[in-house]
Description:
Layout: H1 2-9, H2 11-22, H3 27-52, H4 54-73, H5 135-145, E1 158-159, E2 165-166, H6 178-181, E3 184-188, H7 192-196, H8 200-204, H9 219-226, H10 228-234, E4 240-244, H11 245-251, E5 272-274, E6 277-279, H12 285-298, H13 310-319, H14 324-337
Antiparallel strand pairs: 1-2, 3-4, 5-6
Helix pairs in contact: 1-3, 2-3, 3-4, 9-10, 12-13
Amino acid sequence: xxxxxxxxxxxxxxxxPYLERIGGxxxxxxxxxxxxxxGVVEMTGGYxxxxxxxxWAVLLSAAALTLGGCCCVEPQPIDSGWDEPVADxxxxxPDEPDDDDEPEKPAEDPDGDDxxxxxxxxxxxxxxxxxxSSFSRSKRIIMEIFExxxxxxxxxCRYTKDKEVYLNSCGYKVRKNGKRAKRxxxxxxxxxxxxGGGLPSWLEGHPECLSSKKKPxxxxxxxxxxxxxxAYMEADLYNLQPAIGEVNGDRSNYPPAILEGEERExxxxxxxxxxxxxxxxxxxxGNIARSYMYMDWAYPGLRIIHSGNRKLIEGWxxxxxxxxxxxxxxxxxxxxxxxxNPFIK
Length: 345
Ligand SMILES: [Ca+2]
Ligand SMILES: [Ca+2]
């Protein structure tokens, strides 16, 4: 009897190609399930046979294998369902690649420089964007704003209307991902997690944030769905710039910083990314600072500027003052979005 049961236990190996073909369930999970089922049957099989007879032993084996089989036939994600990736419903770029994988930022205030006790995530800020309701729409508007002056933000590479980057135009050398390097993406200068990571829907999820399989999710995807404030912040044009996809991905949600040395990982493009920080070229440091200052001013209470980055941002704002190109850009943003960036005069 034990021999028969052991043979039945072996089904997991022989059935794998079939299970793979019917799809959905991980072969590893199937194997483990059948393995543990057959283990239980094997251990108890002899005992059951002696006590209850062969009928019960066979029934027990059949039941165990059927249970395992049912799970394998029904597609089941292995993951818990939390933090599912953001589904980008737009056409032009993948998700802000790493923003969703980052450790979520708690809303603590270690330096105590923020007295406001939380933000109503459903109400728009009167200072900020109240006109453009989705990031997808902003991505289209950006292409119009930069028309005729199509240079990427970090590297100054030229790009086409079809969002193809001419890497040779700025001496860019691919670090790792050639396909993504050639693709233009729209970068959040202040990362989405910096302004959304403390919102309740991002941190805790929401009853309406359920996947098609009724699994709860939180993070950026839930914030975009639930928080009106987040959707408008995410779409704020003063915080968006065209960037080489590879640099956008590598920058992730890292804060700006001064890094030691001038290692060139991207050919002639003067951007360094290491130790979870990034150092942009001097010419755009003020522009970056003014995006941070604007976001902090327009959406108060979110600690976008705090004691850890204030000095650097103020320093960059002074060292790289507003020039005509930035003024021209801000004018077009104001026309499209309706509100002002008071730090660009
Ligand atoms: Ca540098
Ligand atoms: Ca500048």
